[in-house]
Amino acid sequence: MSQPGVTRRQAFERRQKRRSVLIALTSTVIVIGLVVALVPQTPGWYKVKRSFFDGAVLSDTFSKLLSAFTKDIQIFLWCAPCILIWGMTLAICRSVRTPALFPLRLFAAAYTDIFRGIPVILTILLVGFGVPGLGLHRPWNSPYLWGSVALVLAYSSYVAEVFRAGIESVHESQRAGARSLGLSSGQTLRFVIIPQAVRRVIPPLMNDFVSLQKDVALISLIGPIEILRQAGIDKSKYANFTPYVGAAIIFLLLTIPETRFVDHLMTRERRRTSGTAVR
Amino acid sequence: MIRRLSLALAATSLLTLAACGGDDSSKPGADAGADTSAAPGVNTDDSMSGDWEMISLDCAAGKTLTPDTVTIGTGSPAFSPWVENDAPETGEGFEAAVGYAIARTMGYADSQVVWVRTTFDEAIAPGDKNFDFNMQQYSITPEREETISFSDSYYASNQAIVALAGSPAEGATSVADLKDVKFGAQAGTTSLTFINDVIKPSNEAFVYDDNAGAKAALEAGQIDAIVVDLPTALYISAVEIEGTSVIGQFPGSAGEASDNYGAVFTKDNPLVDCVDQALALLKTNGRLDKIQQAWLSDNAGVPVISVD
């Protein structure tokens, strides 16, 4: 019965696969069909539609939202490298083993405890309104500057923890091997530990940056009109929530590819470290 | 608490007595079957006492959320001079007083008025509402009328500039003097539209959720001046942000400079018509003017900035 080159087992597996695809397809169609058919039957649907999915409002506001979003991207682009550098510095501080440098470890531990424990929104409000109040002059009191500083302070603590986890995940034998080859403690860290650690933590790191992309919007609280604020302004103007839906769409256009990319990296990493995947 | 209440009662009855003593014909609501005498604590100054004219009592019947009750929404918190001390139940503050005035004119006693608190967003979100109408300085605009309904205007406000001493906005006589000023505005107001459409400054304006944010930014020198409606400007400069003054107001004809404030209803609420009738009556019999004089400062002293 079996085709040439196809074992009975492979033929069985193909049938099984076709069957599961068919089941997945059917259940998806049923669920989506039910949602599409039932939601408009709810008594409030036409009101929700008018307030959240107004095509005219969307087309009026979308271009403004898009141009406001460039601010979010700019802020993200200058924050991200600062976060990486400062996060890595903190992680290294926390990993040093020299007794004389214990204060450094203490500082790094206290720093991550504090900034990881404070909601980002509070850090932005406190730094963004507090520091410029000290008497700085333009442009040094800009909310863009201090909002970004707040984001860097908060996110570097998350990123530091990710890096630290990566550093600790490198097996002790690597360190021992490097030292026995004559590398100094600093060289071991630089050439042996960190390269392995960074590669392992790239997927969780990307998760943090996807969430940074969204939290940039919180800077609107201290003045700048970026996408979230622009959406809020248009919401008030039209008394309609559609601009928020527009903003959500714009965020998704960026974060979905980002997330898929992270997934792809994770899959590759899993394959690399543990062989084939089991279904 | 009991002492405060009884004091308030005593004060109320004294005021009511005084008002009645001054004008024999004033028996609020006696002819209409609705008891419009002041509920405990409700303000009874000259603007709210005396003979009270009403519209047809059938108008609002059955159209309110709860029978025999008018439920009015206001801000959370509500700000002076619109509502004094965040306590609309006292009838103190312009919108609090207008709320009671509308209710009385539709035939409801002060004790039949219930206040609820909502944010701007809650007032415009779809779904059932917990108020009959909502007053928190909502500007009437055609865009908003697509989603919600407005009463007629109960107040027309000009935009005004508030700044600290030494601000580059100081001494401005026309919008040309304001091009290089860094402005701030409050989220959800029409002031930002005004800044962008009429002043057109060279720097983009910043926007804050509340006066506290604007204040911090003013004090930190991040912005030079804020644009708000005139009554709010006068209140901010007098009470909220020390060291500020109202630099000027814009003429009512400038762009959307004149904001017409209306009460917000759910779309096509049948009560709109009754509130409009009530407001029309309050305008013709001079009540609205009296209430305005009682709660909003005189604008005459504020210099006018030309928009040419």
TrEMBL record, chain A:
GO CC annotation terms, alphabetical:
ATP-binding cassette (ABC) transporter complex
The record's subcellular location field reads: Cell membrane
- Per UniProt, what is one Pfam family of this protein? BPD_transp_1
Alphabetized, the UniProt keywords read: Amino-acid transport, Cell membrane, Membrane, Transmembrane, Transmembrane helix, Transport
**Gene3D superfamilies, per this entry?**
MetI-like
Primary localization class, coarse: membrane
GO molecular-function term, one example from the UniProt record: transmembrane transporter activity
Question: Which residue ranges does the record assign to the ABC transmembrane type-1 domain?
Answer: 69-262
SUPFAM superfamilies cross-referenced by the UniProt entry:
MetI-like
One GO term of the biological process aspect: amino acid transport
Q: How does it sit in the membrane?
A: Multi-pass membrane protein
Please list every transmembrane segment annotated in the UniProt record, as residue ranges: 21-39, 75-93, 114-132, 238-256
Which family does the record assign?
A: Belongs to the binding-protein-dependent transport system permease family. HisMQ subfamily.
Q: What is this protein called?
A: Unannotated protein
